[in-house]
Amino acid sequence: MLNDSINRLPESELLAIFDNAAIVLILVDREGRVVRINRAGSELVGAGNEKVMGLLAGEALRCVNLYGNENAVCGCTEECTRCDLRNLFSQVFNTSIDIEKRVGSITVAREGTPQTYKLLISANRVVIEKKQYVLLTIDDITKQKEQEEMLKKLVKTRDKLLSVIAHDLKSPLSVIIGFADYMVANFDKVEKEQINTFLEHIQQSSHDAYNLLDNLFEWTSNQWNKTSMIPKAVKVGDMCNDVLDFCRSIAKGKEVRIELAEHYSGFWVLDEDMIKTTLRNLVINSIKFTNRGGIVQLETAKNGETLRFVVSDTGIGICKEALESLFKGNGNGSSSGTESEKGSGLGLLICKEFVEKHGAQLEVASEVGKGTSISFSIPPAK
């Protein structure tokens, strides 16, 4: 038992071991007041032993729930009932049963900014001069948990990439290879009209493959925070025309009319590449789900203090079930277009992430059989 080991050591040796331990050690009494804290603990709380002795644990650690609230008392607020540290040492005092290596967290105020630490906590009974204390052993595992989350994200990204490469990219490439091989093998037999049809299929599949690769690059870059915001004053009308010019060949191949409706002709501060990518994906997606002879419109307008972008179509619309999973990134948000066009769902994910970087949200309104409208409003630059 820990008490027996402590009682056999001279006080000076015990204090030396306590103070120099690489892990955080905090000795608290039944009220939760700090009796002693070692050097590692002082580094965590940002104050030496003499400054925190006698303070309640939350005060010593600068618990965020006490910061800036003169009336709050450690152990007496509603948030205290959910405090991992307080619950652990209180449990040990009440049950006399030690607790080993329990994962918990605490949010503290560091220079006025809340900062959450992930902790591995042990709480052991200690008797010193017939008085009961609890020794808190705390290991800061924040970086370890961050690395675990990063690894999970890496695995998820890898799986998505493999899925896109194995299925979504393979489809347009197979079409290109199939028609090209056929024309090479039957060059003298293929009629001019048939060649034109084959070339249209190759053209469409080439666009699909290019857009997919472009989205794949944008998405993976954004997953690893390599996509930086570069806001600048952009002439909105010119930017929208560039987007529609890029999409015209896709729309023409499907006989869908795309047009710039009412639009804001002034300048707005935004990341041009991100918003172009967003609008391009939304327009292409609208073309995908619009029948031949349909219309896709891009509209911009000042809406109070914000600039509103709207991409609308006269397409087949989206059912309620599909709307709920549209931006979840689980593969359920993607389906075949009106002419069996394939998609990975990455385009809409990119739109969502890029729009959110601008402090906005995507809004979707759709009616099955009548069409869909997707919009977002960018606030003015701060």
UniProtKB/TrEMBL annotation:
Enzyme superclass (EC): transferase
Cellular component terms per the entry's GO annotation: plasma membrane
Endpoints of the signal sequence: none
GO MF term set: histidine phosphotransfer kinase activity; phosphorelay sensor kinase activity
Enzyme Commission number(s): 2.7.13.3
Catalytic function, reaction form: ATP + protein L-histidine = ADP + protein N-phospho-L-histidine
CDD domains, per database record: HisKA
UniProt keyword list: Kinase, Phosphoprotein, Transferase
InterPro entries the record matches: HATPase_C_sf, HATPase_dom, His_kinase_dom, HisK_dim/P_dom, HisK_dim/P_sf, PAS, PAS-like_dom_sf, Sig_transdc_His_kin-like_C
Pfam families on file: HATPase_c, HisKA, PAS_8
UniProt entry tagged with the keyword Kinase: yes
Location of the PAS domain: 10-54
SUPFAM superfamilies: ATPase domain of HSP90 chaperone/DNA topoisomerase II/histidine kinase, Homodimeric domain of signal transducing histidine kinase, PYP-like sensor domain (PAS domain)
PANTHER family listed in its UniProt record: OSMOSENSING HISTIDINE PROTEIN KINASE SLN1, TWO-COMPONENT HISTIDINE PROTEIN KINASE
Record's protein name: histidine kinase
